[in-house]
Design goal:
Keywords: Methyltransferase, S-adenosyl-L-methionine, Transferase. This is Methyltransferase-like 23. Belongs to the methyltransferase superfamily. METTL23 family. It is a single chain. The protein has a single domain (about 1-155), classed as 3-Layer(aba) Sandwich (Rossmann fold), CATH 3.40.50.150. The protein contains four helices and eight strands; from the N terminus they run αβαββαβαββββ. It has helices spanning about 10-15, 30-40, 80-95, 115-120; strands at about 25, 50, 70, 100-105, 120-125, 140, 140-145, 150-155. The chain is globular.
Length: about 160
């Protein structure tokens, strides 16, 4: 499940590589959902479901079992941080063995998800970008990460003993 999919590039790529994918973005952004569907069609993936899923609202829809929840640069507005992690917590509670794979661009020293992780009993494992040569100043002709600090992390539920 890709949350905050936008045009759905990571999810479309995963589907093109053979993964079973569901793309989602806010139900309040119908044009965004239309763009997601169009991206799927243009990439030969008309069967990929695109769902409205608004952060912070407990989804009433029934989803199949999930292994990975993917969020590509969803942490860009601090007012959404708790809603994102509330939604992730709910999805992980329904799928305790699943993980939330996400990237995060550090935009301000004052913005952090650490307190929300603690509140929602989630833990983050930081993945060093050098493990897959993503720590270069320019990647694939893009200026990102450039001089920006980009973090990749895998978020999961804490165990009963707090680990």
């Amino acid at each position: 499940l890709q949350v905050g999919a936008g045009a759905g590039l990571p999810g479309v790529l995963a589907a093109r590589c053979g993964a079973e994918v569901i793309l989602s973005d806010s139900e309040e952004l119908p044009r965004c959902l239309q763009h997601c569907r169009r991206s799927c069609r243009l990439n030969g993936l008309p069967h990929v479901p695109v769902l409205g899923l608004t952060w912070g609202r407990l989804p009433l829809l029934t989803l199949p079992p999930l292994d990975i929840i993917l969020g590509s640069d969803v942490f860009f507005d601090p007012k959404d941080f708790e809603d994102i992690l509330t939604t992730v917590y709910y999805l992980l509670e329904k799928n305790p063995h699943a993980q939330f794979w996400t990237t995060y661009q550090v935009r301000s020293a004052d913005w952090s998800i650490e307190a929300w992780l603690c509140k929602w009993k989630l833990k983050a494992t930081h993945i060093p970008l050098h493990l897959f040569s993503a720590d270069k100043e320019h990647l694939a002709g893009s200026s990102l990460p450039g001089r920006h600090t980009i973090e990749m992390m895998i978020i999961s539920l804490t165990t009963p003993d707090g680990t």
